[in-house]
Amino acid sequence: MHLDNGKEDLICGEDMSNEEHLISKGLAILIEDNIISKIKPEEELIEEFLPSFNRKIEKSTKICMNKINDTLVTQVGRNSIIPGLIDSHTHLLWDGDRSNEVSLRMKGMSYSEISKAGGGITYTVNETRKSTDETLAKLGKERLKEALRNGTTALEAKSGYGLTTESELKLTSIMNDLSIDETNPSIDITWMGAHDIPKGKEKADYIEELINKQIPEITSQGYARNCDVFCEPGWFTIEETERIIENASNSGLSIRLHVDEFKDGGGADLAAKKGVDTADHALYSNDDARENMSKANVIQGFLPGAPYTMGLDKWPPIKQCIENNQPWTIATDFNPNCRILSIPSIASICVQKLGINPLATLCAATRNAGISVLHRTEKPHGIIKEGYVANMNILNGEKWEGWCLQQGSSPFKATILEGSTVIHTIT
Ligand code: NIG
Ligand code: FE
């Protein structure tokens, strides 16, 4: 499951499920300095690089590791290998518990009504501001471990639960520390000061703060590469979003957006006009806007965990996107309201509920996600290909389709994170 069809750009339409081009058997992979340096038929690679290695044909599904001279040989048995998963949309760092909101929703309150009553993002902001750096770092570490256990080798993570210059800088700084630690998945950091309007502030004043204080301080701190805005009726309007992202972009930040999560507010049209990297949720976007985004190479970042956790029966139009050859990804949207850190769980919704092809779903969560998420090495990732970061998952079984058919536990036996094998289960 190398997903290498000879091209490196976004993969769309039927190409995403072309098994002949994207899957091979019997290949061996040489890793040097955390990068895939050679992929060849097993016998040829052994002959060329490790002639002293006496290969036994492995019939079992056990993973076997041996040191031969200076080379660590990992035999994966009959298990399938897929690229490391890339979670292109998470709200990783926050403190506090909003489990009670499930009951409010069942009493008929909407996300927006809960938010107006002091729940939602406001509640998490208060809890996060009260939390210590140590606690937030520990929470981040635990969440990254869980993501890695579920095959995520790189992710995008947003600030946005501080909403003051100081607390936003604190969140990006903790994320930077977490990303430097190579035992964690790599993090591409996004500043999302425009996630909500902090209580006690006028919106117009807060927007001035975002533009004149947060953007300059965030860019001089240098940890965030991207900017995201919650462009949604009731939060930031099209005009406000445009002003914020123009300033962020002029300061060197790449732009991603939350658009049309609860209604078609024109967010996708703005995303197309501005040619942003990715327009996420895009649940209620209109067909013309989707087509315009595609023409502008804007990815539709689908987050089916959001309607799933909110009990809504509204799903992203992934089939239509495939028919129209438009680029798309899937991600978890991990946040206090959607506590899913597993891409395979999200993929199971796509495949088992929405009927999307499992190979196409894998392309969305690996090579397409790798286009909008920069790896900490700045090397390409998301495909098992020479020159790419050596991030891979060893499945618990022979049939590759098993990667996306499991809720509640991980389908992986081991994850290779930048060349180092992390064993999840010994059986
Ligand atoms: O992507 N919609 C905005 N942000 C998150 C939810 C944040 C929250 O509820 O805390 C999202 O769904
Ligand atoms: Fe989100």
Could you write a compact summary of the structure shown?
Helix content is 36%, strand content 20%. It is built from 16 helices and 16 strands.
So what's the CATH class of the largest domain?
Alpha Beta
Helical stretch tally:
16
What is the tally of beta strands?
Answer: 16
Q: Looking at the chains present, what oligomeric state does this protein adopt?
A: single chain
Please give the domain count: 2
Structural shape: globular
Distance between the termini: 22 Å
Overall mean pLDDT score? 96
CATH topology of the largest domain: TIM Barrel
Determine the structural class based on helices, strands and strand pairing.
alpha/beta
The fraction of residues in strands falls at: 15-25%
The CATH homologous superfamily of the largest domain corresponds to: Metal-dependent hydrolases
Each distinct ligand: N-(iminomethyl)-L-glutamic acid, fe (iii) ion
